[in-house]
Design brief:
single chain; 359 residues; alpha+beta; Alpha-Beta Plaits; 3 domains; 13 helices
């Protein structure tokens, strides 16, 4: 069968603000062939980044309504598109490669897909993490933010959780991929939290488990204990996930540690070590920091400011209380886009892609 249909899909994905760069090897086409059937590609390319019912899609595209919702639901289950049931009404939208199709392959990730994803990761990451605005922003350990810093809602885990009415946790796709590649992580696997402002949204999920609000907070506490960085969408409002990330598996943190992309995440704080108080125990550098931003000196440890992402993990376990969180200077802070569509608009404009057909 000709690969033309998959090249068409690749062009559509690369037209979206997130991008989907071509490679010399064509590994991106092999990935799409692994995930999509030809009939799925045709329907995917007719979808948009905004929610629609099957009837709205049929009316807009001229497709037959018969069997359309079933096909969309099947594509949702295959991790190709996003779909939810809101009060008995199913709505759907297309997904970019990241954050989107890749993360939704959790049920389907096998050794072959893991190898393909890893091979494509460097090419994709080089384009994705160097472009602005960043996909992710750091949500620091909240108890380490001093009251005088006046943290904004999108900088606080509690504000994001309090907007939710449904909570769900599932295994981390990055950790699962690395495990299949014989690089297992020694930290917990079930750490990716989804949040929705409507009750019952996750009741039909085929993987993971639902959480109460109290359990959501307990998960955050456990992730902080295990030195996992909280990352969420780099927007002011409309957050629907909190990833809890390690340096060995997370694509975002690996882009910093392995590929040297210094501005891969948006952040608002820096850690600062008082050398007069530091006991030089090394806990912060050896056990807590996920981006190698702390170095040993002659008598004390110090923070490498250009590497620090302000997560606060080093502060909470310093036995001598020598570390504090310091808010960046106003000129160093880049406010996030207002919401998801504003993020798409800003990203699309900076990449110079016209994705108006998919709004």
């Amino acid at each position: 069968m000709s690969d033309d249909v998959y090249h068409r899909l690749a062009r559509v994905l690369d037209t979206l603000p997130n991008g989907f760069p071509a490679t010399d090897s064509g590994i991106e086409i092999q990935l799409l062939k692994k995930i999509f059937r030809p009939k799925d590609v045709d329907l995917f390319c007719d979808l948009r980044l905004n929610w629609e019912t099957a009837q709205q899609i049929a009316e807009r595209t001229g497709r037959s309504l018969e069997g359309l919702e079933d096909h969309l639901t099947e594509m949702q289950q295959r991790g190709q598109i996003f779909g939810v049931d809101v009060g008995g009404v199913k709505i759907f939208k297309m997904l970019p490669w990241v954050f989107g199709i890749y993360e939704f392959q959790l049920d389907h990730m096998d050794r072959e897909l893991a190898e393909m994803s890893e091979a494509y990761g460097k090419v994709y990451g080089d384009q994705f993490f160097k472009n602005q605005p960043q996909l992710m922003q750091v949500v620091p350990v909240e108890k380490e933010i001093q009251a005088t810093h006046e943290a904004l809602p999108y900088e606080k885990v509690s504000s994001i959780i309090e907007t939710g009415k449904s909570f769900h946790v599932q295994d981390c796709i990055c950790k699962k991929e690395q495990g299949l590649l014989d690089n297992p992580c020694d930290r917990p696997l079930e750490v990716c939290m989804a949040i929705a402002p409507i009750e019952g949204v996750f009741d039909d999920r085929r993987n993971g488990r639902n959480l109460s609000k109290e359990e959501a907070y307990a998960l955050i506490d456990k992730c902080e204990e295990d030195a996992l960085v909280h990352l969420t969408w780099n927007v002011e409002s409309g957050h629907f996930f909190i990833c809890n990330c390690c340096r060995c598996c997370c694509g975002v943190l690996r882009s910093i540690n392995e590929w040297g992309i210094s501005n891969a995440v948006n952040s608002y704080y820096l850690a600062e070590i008082d050398p007069e108080v530091c006991a030089a125990c090394g806990t912060c550098a050896d056990e807590r920091c996920q981006v190698h931003a702390i170095e040993e000196g002659e008598d004390a440890y110090s923070v490498i400011k250009k590497k620090c992402i302000g997560c606060g993990l080093c502060v909470s376990t310093c036995p001598s209380e020598a570390i504090q969180m310091v808010r960046k200077q106003p000129e160093e802070i880049v406010p996030p886009p207002k919401d998801e569509m504003d993020w798409y608009e800003k990203r699309g404009n900076l990449r110079g892609v016209d994705f108006s057909k998919y709004k």
